[in-house]
Design goal:
alpha+beta; four-stranded antiparallel β-sheet; 11 strands; DUF1045; DUF1045 domain-containing protein
Amino acid sequence: MMALQSPLTRRLESAAVHRFAIYAAVDPDSMLHNLASAWLGRDAARGMGLQRPRLDGVDETTAAAWTEDPARYGFHATLKPPFRLAADRSSHALDNTLRSFTAARDPVTLGRLEVTALSGFVALRPVEETAALRALVDDIVRTFDVFRRPPDDAELQRRRASGLTPRQEANLIRWGYPYVMDDFRLHFTLTGRLDEPARSRAVSALADYLAPAIAAPLTLSALWLFVEPSPGALFRQVSRYALAAA
Protein backbone atom coordinates (compact mmCIF):
# COMPACT_ATOMS: atom_id res chain seq x y z
CA MET A 1 0.00 0.00 0.00
CA MET A 2 1.31 3.44 -0.89
CA ALA A 3 2.02 5.67 2.12
CA LEU A 4 -0.15 8.76 2.35
CA GLN A 5 1.72 12.03 2.01
CA SER A 6 1.13 14.95 4.34
CA PRO A 7 -0.13 18.25 2.87
CA LEU A 8 3.32 19.68 3.62
CA THR A 9 5.06 16.94 1.64
CA ARG A 10 2.76 17.39 -1.35
CA ARG A 11 3.34 21.15 -1.23
CA LEU A 12 7.13 20.77 -1.06
CA GLU A 13 7.32 18.18 -3.83
CA SER A 14 5.14 20.30 -6.12
CA ALA A 15 7.42 23.32 -5.71
CA ALA A 16 11.12 23.85 -6.25
CA VAL A 17 13.08 23.96 -2.99
CA HIS A 18 16.73 24.92 -3.12
CA ARG A 19 17.58 24.32 0.55
CA PHE A 20 15.95 23.12 3.75
CA ALA A 21 16.86 24.11 7.32
CA ILE A 22 15.82 22.89 10.75
CA TYR A 23 15.46 25.84 13.10
CA ALA A 24 14.23 26.76 16.53
CA ALA A 25 11.48 29.35 16.26
CA VAL A 26 8.74 30.65 18.50
CA ASP A 27 4.98 30.57 18.09
CA PRO A 28 4.06 32.87 15.16
CA ASP A 29 1.33 34.40 17.35
CA SER A 30 3.69 35.15 20.25
CA MET A 31 4.87 38.60 21.27
CA LEU A 32 8.49 37.59 20.72
CA HIS A 33 7.85 36.44 17.16
CA ASN A 34 5.88 39.57 16.32
CA LEU A 35 8.38 42.02 17.84
CA ALA A 36 11.46 40.30 16.42
CA SER A 37 9.89 39.86 12.98
CA ALA A 38 8.92 43.53 12.89
CA TRP A 39 12.51 44.46 13.74
CA LEU A 40 13.74 42.26 10.86
CA GLY A 41 11.13 43.78 8.55
CA ARG A 42 9.50 40.49 7.54
CA ASP A 43 7.46 37.63 8.95
CA ALA A 44 8.87 34.32 7.68
CA ALA A 45 5.85 32.37 8.95
CA ARG A 46 3.32 34.50 7.09
CA GLY A 47 5.50 35.39 4.12
CA MET A 48 4.98 39.12 4.37
CA GLY A 49 6.98 42.28 4.82
CA LEU A 50 6.50 44.39 7.95
CA GLN A 51 6.92 48.01 8.93
CA ARG A 52 9.99 48.28 11.14
CA PRO A 53 9.56 49.85 14.59
CA ARG A 54 11.20 53.12 15.55
CA LEU A 55 13.79 52.29 18.21
CA ASP A 56 15.58 54.84 20.34
CA GLY A 57 18.56 56.09 18.35
CA VAL A 58 17.94 53.75 15.40
CA ASP A 59 16.06 55.03 12.37
CA GLU A 60 14.39 52.74 9.83
CA THR A 61 17.15 53.12 7.23
CA THR A 62 19.78 52.12 9.78
CA ALA A 63 17.67 49.19 10.98
CA ALA A 64 17.25 47.96 7.40
CA ALA A 65 21.02 48.05 6.86
CA TRP A 66 21.72 46.26 10.13
CA THR A 67 19.20 43.49 9.41
CA GLU A 68 19.74 42.93 5.69
CA ASP A 69 21.27 39.46 6.15
CA PRO A 70 19.21 38.03 9.06
CA ALA A 71 15.96 39.30 7.52
CA ARG A 72 16.41 36.86 4.63
CA TYR A 73 16.32 33.91 7.02
CA GLY A 74 13.53 35.11 9.31
CA PHE A 75 13.53 35.08 13.10
CA HIS A 76 15.09 31.79 14.18
CA ALA A 77 17.94 29.97 15.89
CA THR A 78 19.88 27.50 13.75
CA LEU A 79 19.80 23.83 14.74
CA LYS A 80 20.57 22.09 11.42
CA PRO A 81 21.99 24.71 9.03
CA PRO A 82 20.56 25.13 5.52
CA PHE A 83 21.27 22.15 3.29
CA ARG A 84 20.49 20.95 -0.20
CA LEU A 85 18.64 17.65 -0.18
CA ALA A 86 20.80 14.59 -0.87
CA ALA A 87 20.12 12.94 -4.23
CA ASP A 88 18.81 9.74 -2.64
CA ARG A 89 16.48 11.50 -0.16
CA SER A 90 13.06 13.12 -0.52
CA SER A 91 11.09 15.83 1.23
CA HIS A 92 8.58 13.11 2.14
CA ALA A 93 11.30 11.19 4.01
CA LEU A 94 12.54 14.37 5.67
CA ASP A 95 9.03 15.20 6.87
CA ASN A 96 8.50 11.68 8.23
CA THR A 97 11.85 11.65 10.01
CA LEU A 98 11.15 15.00 11.63
CA ARG A 99 7.82 13.68 12.88
CA SER A 100 9.27 10.51 14.37
CA PHE A 101 12.31 12.33 15.80
CA THR A 102 10.30 14.99 17.62
CA ALA A 103 7.66 12.53 18.86
CA ALA A 104 10.39 10.69 20.77
CA ARG A 105 11.92 13.73 22.47
CA ASP A 106 10.86 16.07 25.22
CA PRO A 107 10.77 19.87 25.20
CA VAL A 108 13.92 21.60 26.43
CA THR A 109 13.97 24.58 28.75
CA LEU A 110 16.02 27.45 27.33
CA GLY A 111 15.45 29.67 30.35
CA ARG A 112 15.82 33.43 30.20
CA LEU A 113 17.08 35.05 27.01
CA GLU A 114 19.23 38.16 26.80
CA VAL A 115 20.27 40.49 24.00
CA THR A 116 24.03 40.29 23.62
CA ALA A 117 26.89 40.67 21.16
CA LEU A 118 28.22 37.44 19.64
CA SER A 119 31.12 37.30 17.17
CA GLY A 120 30.45 40.84 15.98
CA PHE A 121 26.68 40.65 15.55
CA VAL A 122 23.75 41.04 17.95
CA ALA A 123 21.60 38.11 19.01
CA LEU A 124 19.19 36.76 21.59
CA ARG A 125 20.90 34.02 23.60
CA PRO A 126 20.04 31.90 26.64
CA VAL A 127 21.67 33.26 29.77
CA GLU A 128 22.85 29.69 30.34
CA GLU A 129 22.99 26.75 27.91
CA THR A 130 21.99 23.42 29.42
CA ALA A 131 23.35 19.94 28.77
CA ALA A 132 19.87 18.92 27.59
CA LEU A 133 19.90 21.60 24.89
CA ARG A 134 23.34 20.61 23.66
CA ALA A 135 22.40 16.93 23.58
CA LEU A 136 19.26 17.67 21.54
CA VAL A 137 21.06 19.87 19.02
CA ASP A 138 23.94 17.41 18.59
CA ASP A 139 21.36 14.67 17.99
CA ILE A 140 19.63 16.80 15.34
CA VAL A 141 22.91 17.42 13.52
CA ARG A 142 23.74 13.70 13.47
CA THR A 143 20.28 12.34 12.68
CA PHE A 144 19.51 14.62 9.76
CA ASP A 145 22.95 14.55 8.20
CA VAL A 146 21.84 11.76 5.85
CA PHE A 147 19.55 14.32 4.18
CA ARG A 148 22.37 16.78 3.49
CA ARG A 149 24.06 16.96 0.12
CA PRO A 150 27.79 17.70 0.64
CA PRO A 151 28.72 21.37 0.10
CA ASP A 152 30.38 22.28 -3.18
CA ASP A 153 33.75 24.02 -3.41
CA ALA A 154 32.19 27.49 -3.56
CA GLU A 155 30.30 26.93 -0.31
CA LEU A 156 33.39 25.51 1.40
CA GLN A 157 35.43 28.55 0.42
CA ARG A 158 32.68 30.90 1.58
CA ARG A 159 32.60 29.21 4.98
CA ARG A 160 36.38 29.39 5.27
CA ALA A 161 36.55 33.09 4.38
CA SER A 162 35.89 34.21 7.96
CA GLY A 163 38.80 32.14 9.28
CA LEU A 164 38.20 28.79 10.99
CA THR A 165 39.91 27.01 13.83
CA PRO A 166 41.16 23.45 13.17
CA ARG A 167 38.11 22.08 15.00
CA GLN A 168 35.75 24.24 12.95
CA GLU A 169 37.45 23.09 9.75
CA ALA A 170 36.93 19.49 10.85
CA ASN A 171 33.25 20.26 11.52
CA LEU A 172 32.92 21.80 8.07
CA ILE A 173 34.29 18.68 6.39
CA ARG A 174 32.32 16.22 8.53
CA TRP A 175 29.02 18.06 9.03
CA GLY A 176 29.00 20.72 6.30
CA TYR A 177 29.05 23.62 8.78
CA PRO A 178 31.77 24.93 11.13
CA TYR A 179 29.68 25.93 14.13
CA VAL A 180 28.29 22.62 15.38
CA MET A 181 29.01 20.27 18.28
CA ASP A 182 31.49 21.94 20.66
CA ASP A 183 31.38 25.14 18.57
CA PHE A 184 27.60 25.44 18.73
CA ARG A 185 26.07 28.47 20.47
CA LEU A 186 22.29 28.78 20.34
CA HIS A 187 21.35 32.27 19.17
CA PHE A 188 18.47 34.08 17.50
CA THR A 189 20.24 36.47 15.14
CA LEU A 190 19.06 40.10 15.22
CA THR A 191 21.69 41.93 13.12
CA GLY A 192 24.51 41.34 10.72
CA ARG A 193 28.09 42.07 11.78
CA LEU A 194 28.43 45.55 13.24
CA ASP A 195 31.41 47.62 14.29
CA GLU A 196 31.44 49.71 17.44
CA PRO A 197 29.74 51.92 18.46
CA ALA A 198 26.87 50.62 16.30
CA ARG A 199 26.97 47.19 17.97
CA SER A 200 26.54 48.64 21.46
CA ARG A 201 23.75 50.92 20.23
CA ALA A 202 21.97 47.90 18.78
CA VAL A 203 22.34 45.85 21.98
CA SER A 204 20.93 48.67 24.10
CA ALA A 205 18.03 49.51 21.78
CA LEU A 206 17.03 45.89 21.20
CA ALA A 207 17.28 44.98 24.89
CA ASP A 208 14.73 47.70 25.67
CA TYR A 209 12.53 46.84 22.69
CA LEU A 210 12.37 43.10 23.37
CA ALA A 211 12.23 43.30 27.17
CA PRO A 212 8.47 42.60 27.45
CA ALA A 213 8.81 39.51 25.24
CA ILE A 214 11.77 37.94 27.04
CA ALA A 215 10.77 38.59 30.64
CA ALA A 216 9.67 34.98 31.15
CA PRO A 217 11.79 31.84 30.56
CA LEU A 218 11.45 30.24 27.12
CA THR A 219 10.94 26.55 26.37
CA LEU A 220 11.94 24.92 23.09
CA SER A 221 8.70 23.04 22.44
CA ALA A 222 9.04 22.33 18.72
CA LEU A 223 11.35 22.21 15.75
CA TRP A 224 10.53 24.13 12.59
CA LEU A 225 11.29 23.35 8.97
CA PHE A 226 12.28 26.39 6.90
CA VAL A 227 12.79 26.36 3.13
CA GLU A 228 14.69 28.50 0.64
CA PRO A 229 12.74 28.18 -2.63
CA SER A 230 15.61 29.25 -4.89
CA PRO A 231 19.20 30.44 -4.43
CA GLY A 232 19.17 33.75 -2.57
CA ALA A 233 15.40 33.74 -2.01
CA LEU A 234 13.75 34.60 1.29
CA PHE A 235 13.41 31.66 3.67
CA ARG A 236 9.90 30.56 4.66
CA GLN A 237 8.84 29.00 7.97
CA VAL A 238 6.66 26.15 6.72
CA SER A 239 6.04 23.40 9.27
CA ARG A 240 6.07 22.85 13.05
CA TYR A 241 7.08 19.55 14.68
CA ALA A 242 6.13 19.39 18.36
CA LEU A 243 8.58 17.82 20.78
CA ALA A 244 6.69 14.92 22.42
CA ALA A 245 3.71 16.20 24.40
CA ALA A 246 4.46 19.90 23.80
